[in-house]
UniProtKB/TrEMBL annotation:
Name the record gives this protein: Type IV secretory system Conjugative DNA transfer family protein
Gene3D superfamilies linked: P-loop containing nucleotide triphosphate hydrolases
Main location: membrane
Naturally occurring in which organism (per UniProt): Orientia tsutsugamushi str. UT144
Entry-linked PANTHER family: CONJUGATIVE TRANSFER: DNA TRANSPORT
Matches recorded under Pfam families: TraD_N, TrwB_AAD_bind
Amino acid sequence: MNFQNQGNFTRGSQLFAHKLRMFGQGSTNVFIIGLGLSIFWIICRLYQKVCLSSLYYFAIERYVQLKLAIGEHFYDIDQIGIKFYSLRFKKWMHLNAQDFLHEFYTSQHGFKIQQLLEFLINSALLEGLIVFAIGVIISIVFFTAQGKKTIIKAKIRGADFVGYKCLAKMLKSAKKASKIRFGGLPLVKNSERLHILITGTTGTGKTNMLNELLPQIRLHKDRAIIVDTTGAFTDRFFDPKCDKLLNPLEKNSEQWLPWNDCFEAADFHDIASSFSNYTPKLDDFFAKNAELVLSEALKLYKDDKDIIKLIHTIIYSDNRQFAKAFRNTAVSGIISESALETSARIQSTLGKNITSLQYLKPGGSFSIKEWFSNSNETGWLFITANPNQRATLCPLISAWISIAIKALMCRNPNHDNKNMWFILDELPALQKVSSLPVALAESRKYGGCFVAGL
């Protein structure tokens, strides 16, 4: 036998042995399934024929029979008794052995045991064989079908290029189609909370996609916070009956003050950071401390909620008055009359950052957090700024977005929270929103759905 023939022999013998082993394993699987179904069927039938209490008395009956068979050689039968716990009377009882046997066989328990024995003798084996045969046949058919499926030509990996109608049909048939659609194509179900980024150059249809999205949000009665830096969405979708508008330069705007959303000490710092141009990489001393000073300034006037006094103290007071205002506060170490030059630099930086606060009207009572948490509110919140207002209002817009994000993150993540949409068109036109990265990473469980345009 040459080398080639020897290789063919080895290959053939190994394949044949492998097929025999696989056939044996398959036959074993079929047998186990049939046997398992038979046992399950017999157990179900036994459960129909007899109850646990009958089996309990039957076990006592067997013990009594054994006791009589042994005891009759040593005692008079009338003297042989049995002590047992009666399920009927819920107490221990003592009966003559023969009396117990008489009561057992004339009771319902004895009748059920008799039925059980007749079933085991006459029907159990036949029913078990029938169920076994059915299980074997079903297993053979199933395994054969699985074998055919594995040899059918199919794509192993990779994507398919299909039309949007075909994709929509596939999502619908798989019950994975979302209620939100773009151009007739639904999103994957529950993917709204994974957020949407719309990118493209001028004229590619970013705004048109949002114009298609917003009516769907309204239709499904979801709430939304819309940052409109062009005025296009406000003109088209603002409903004065239920929606709120935030823009201190507009007549129909809600009147907001920073203190309306400051309920904890950390809230003052969060709002102050929105009016700061501090960047950790640059580590600007004056920008960082201007942020701290604004936080303390907000605390100083939290009782009066006097925006005019706040603006006057920060922007219009001289160096000594400015330092005096923060005496005995957390920033008195950096704002003091003994370091007027440092104080002046911080005051200058801070005054430039809070220019937009000058447009807030005294006595405002609107709170973004209260609007957010009010279950009776069904409308949207429009945060607007026309192109000629952006530079002035950007710090305010950043503060409002941060407050709304914090309100979102205060929801209970274990509740079934409804979707809250954040529509951020022209995202690069906004100032830094420090809480946005955290919101994008963690807001899914709170119901946050962010849509940003670039």
